[in-house]
Amino acid sequence: MFKQVLELLYSWLSTLGSPTIVHDEITAYNHFYLLQIDQPMLQSEMIKTEFHCHTTYSNDSTVNLQDLVIACENKHIQKLVVTDHNTISGAIQAQKLDPHRFIIGEEILTQQGELLGIFIKEEIPQGLSALKTIELLRSQEAFISVSHPFDPFRAGHWEMTDILDIVSSIDAIEVFNSRCFVPRFNTRAREFSHHNKLLGTVGSDAHSIIEIGKATLTLPNFDDTPSLKYALTMAQPHVRLSGLWVHFYSRYAYWRKRTTSVVL
Ligand SMILES: [Zn+2]
Fold first, then answer.
1. Is residue 142, in this structure, part of any structural domain at all?
2. Which residues surround ligand 1, an ion (CB under 5 A)?
3. Is residue 15, in this structure, part of any structural domain at all?
4. Contact call for residues 28 and 173 (beta carbons, < 8 A)
5. Could you give the dihedral angle defined by the CA atoms of residues 65, 235, 201 and 72, in that order, rounded to the nearest 10 degrees?
6. N- or C-end of the chain: fewer Cβ atoms within 10 A?
């Protein structure tokens, strides 16, 4: 127990002041995958994209939509996938504010673990089996990734046997999540994606404004699932960990929303 506490403390301290880094190995398989597909090179602009972000429509986030627009402008994020917990209400409102920047996504809690859906047309309820959830996502041509699959400190983490059951039905694994405060959880996700020849996404998993942009991909512009798959083959990740303290921040947000009627 003492050793685990020391490891957590060390991992957290090691993230303080860490510079933004580029991990070529994060999307190593993405680049390999490029060699396997037969498509002409897209003559497309490269855009900085955030794939995992929560708004006040999640019960543990303090990010309101107006501040989100400003943060994206300040951090030069051209596209952002809004992935609230089990709802697309915030993403729909965000898209009304800025249709070209915001993409409707959802982080869905299934019976086995959490899934990230991108390009959602109809909200998927939580609590279904992973396979049923994937079936509903496929029926609306959504892109499917798995958020922080091997972080045991998250409620929606995956058991290996369960994730192996869906590995042939998903598009990607989130190979870097800024809220994983033990780096080896991201390493395991990266190794799993490489071993199973899956594309990799990254995400800040922002629940507060200062977390937005901690993990982004710069990739060719895209507007649907097929073009996103292709764009990911040329993605360059820019990632950094957020540190342990952000979890206390979102717990505070959760507590404050439960004890007051204030919309943060
Ligand atoms: Zn999340």
1. yes
2. 107, 205
3. no
4. no
5. -10
6. N
Q: What is the DSSP letter of 9?
A: H
Domain count, the chain: 1
Say how many Å lie between the CA of residue 85 and the centre of ligand 1: 7
For residue 38 the two structure tokens come to 């037969």
Are 130 and 113 in contact, with CB atoms under 8 Å apart?
Answer: yes
Does this model's pTM top 0.90? My answer is: no
Distance 243 CA to ligand 1 centre (A): 15
Please give the single-letter amino acid code of residue 14: S
Q: Residue 135 carries which side chain, given as an amino acid letter?
A: E
Element (H, E) at 229: helix 225-232
Ligand 1 centroid from CA 80, angstroms: 13
Residue at 263 is within a domain: no
Say how many Å lie between the CA of residue 227 and the centre of ligand 1: 23
Q: SS3 of 235, please?
A: coil
d(CA 207, ligand 1 centre) in Å? 8
CA distance 246 to 178: 10
Locate 124 and state its tokens.
Answer: 């998927």
Residue 219 is part of which domain span? 21-258
Is residue 16 in some structural domain?
Answer: no
By DSSP bridging, strand 215-220 and strand 46-53 are antiparallel
193-241 per-position pLDDT tens digit: 999 999 999 999 999 999 999 999 999 999 999 999 999 999 999 999 9
Q: For residue 53, report the distance from its CA to the centre of ligand 1, in Å.
A: 6
* Domain CATH for 75: 3.20.20.140
Strand partners, 143: 118
